[in-house]
Amino acid sequence: MVSSSARPRPVIPPRTRVSGHHTGTLIAGCLAVCLAQIGLVLPAAINGVIQRGLQTSGAELTWISDAFMVPAAVLALTFGVLGDLYGRKKLLVSGAAVAAVGYLVSATADTPGWLITGQALSGLGAAALFPASLAVITAGTTTPAARARGLASWTTALSLGAFIAPLLSGAIVQHTSFHWAFAAVGMLALCTAVAAWFLASESSAPEGRALDWPGQITLALSLLCLLYGIIQGPSDGWSSGPVLVAFIAAAALLVLFVRCETRSTAPMLRLDLFRIPAFAASTAATVIGMFGFLGGAYDLSIRLGVIQHQSPLHAAVPFLVIQGVTPLIWPLLVRLLHRTGPGPMLVGGFLSLATAQLWLRAVPVDEHGLLPLLGPLILNGFGFGLAVAALTAAAVNVVPQKLTGMATATTSLVRDLGQTLGPAIVGAVALSLAAAQITTHLADAGLSPAEHSTAQAVLAQGGPIAVHTAELGPLSAKIAPITQQALADGYNTGLLLTAGACLLAATICAVFIGLKPQSAQLTTPGN
């Protein structure tokens, strides 16, 4: 999946304790964030191969992506506090080691559940690596110029990870099993752990830091329940007991999270920040816009790998185009943010994303060439670059100086939440529509009673994606046009949803943040 967010860390307190050599720390931190970003983007080019290799249902395929993103989204703030309290080097080493274990599990997976477990462990490691890598680099700098160079190096490493991940997975899986893609990243994780152990300096900043376990637990459980309901709804039925219980539990846990945060002496989120209209608006635009971006990227990965059955290497190229645009235009983004401020950039970025996704929707599903996709891909990367460069600045500009660290952390959290919801909601909408369309058209396909029963049984058991990719002999050829069109129509509806989300985000930014030029500083981009 394509990475999409900036992941800045809260401002490092001035009394940070540091020991060791900065060059080695810089190398270790850059390796760590590159590893974390590779893991986030890794499945994008090989979703189709994974689905065919493990015969996953549509829901299981969504879980494989979201299992990594959930811990990376909801635990990054807590790991940031743990690093400040007990040492960022320890967090780098342990995070890389946990990620390595996760990739080992994924590399040996012979069932969807086993692969989901491996992805969850790898996401847990990434949740530690994202904040610790940036904090350990910035803690070792003594001048603004040195800090700027460190941040630039961290940004470059992160962008490199996003760029090479689809190429790495696509190239490996082109010639061997998808398991070897996870094994290769697992070896990189081991190398990263060793490098952090020998090269990184230890640093900490325990003053004023405390863990908010009630808030962390209630938020994590609420998100998990919400995702369960959304992802399992199409296969289990939206009115089924477990799905309804999941939605009710998600709402109850969210209310409990708000109560915990209002009573906590060290909340993970300062809810009073949302009383500032511009901050609340930027937060809403972040969730909605990042849902739109990553939901669209997930839609593209299903189109290429599952519906069109493109080879892993060919499926990787569109993501290389998207990821390659932002580094190329980064100098332009720096100047734009300084001259215009975040408002115009956010509006332009989200409008570009919406246009790109509508353009992609207009490309016929049987079009396998890169050239017809090149326009929406470039526009997608350009829109993402504009939006991600300005998101944190939009939040920081409207809060008091003493709360900029919390505003930055809050923006990072809600951005990741939006990304996590993207594949889940798009998959749920697309698969629900596709299942209904397949059921209708099978009745008119001229199948024998036995063939019709077989197709319906596969659809009931595994969903639209399973029936599209199942090896059913002559029956597969008969129903392939039906299943392909149904999936194409379903995921095209998903693109309407994500484009609408980006348009809504642009409207929120135009109304509440404004289009008036204002100077701002560019924050570090992240995954």
Give the gist of this structure.
This protein has 527 residues and is an all-alpha fold.
What is the fold's blueprint, element by element?
Elements: E1 17-19, H1 22-41, H2 47-54, H3 58-74, H4 76-86, H5 88-107, H6 112-139, H7 144-175, H8 179-199, E2 202-204, H9 213-236, H10 241-263, H11 277-307, H12 312-340, H13 342-362, H14 371-396, H15 404-442, H16 449-469, H17 474-513
Antiparallel strand pairs: 1-2
Helix pairs in contact: 1-6, 1-7, 1-8, 2-11, 3-6, 3-9, 3-15, 4-5, 4-6, 5-6, 5-8, 6-7, 7-8, 7-12, 9-10, 9-15, 11-12, 11-13, 11-14, 11-15, 11-17, 12-14, 13-14, 13-17, 14-15, 15-16, 15-17, 16-17
How much is the average pLDDT?
86
What summary fits the major beta sheet? 2 strands, antiparallel
Beta-strand percent range: under 5%
Helix/strand-derived class?
mainly alpha
Distance between termini?
11 Å
What is the tally of beta strands?
A: 2
**Spatial strand sequence of the major β-sheet:** 1-2
The backbone outline, from C-alpha atoms, is: globular
Low-confidence stretches: 4-16, 521-527
Cα Rg: 22 Å
Defining traits:
single chain; 2 strands; mainly alpha; about 80% helix; about 525 residues
Description:
The chain has 527 residues and is mainly α. Helix content is 78%, strand content 1%. The protein contains 17 helices and two strands. It has helices spanning 22-41, 47-54, 58-74, 76-86, 88-107, 112-139, 144-175, 179-199, 213-236, 241-263, 277-307, 312-340, 342-362, 371-396, 404-442, 449-469, 474-513; strands at residues 17-19, 202-204. Strands 1-2 form a two-stranded antiparallel sheet. Helix 1 packs antiparallel against helix 6, helix 14 packs antiparallel against helix 15 (404-442) and helix 15 (404-442) packs antiparallel against helix 16. It is globular and about 75 Å long. Mean pLDDT is 86; it is low at 4-16 and 521-527.
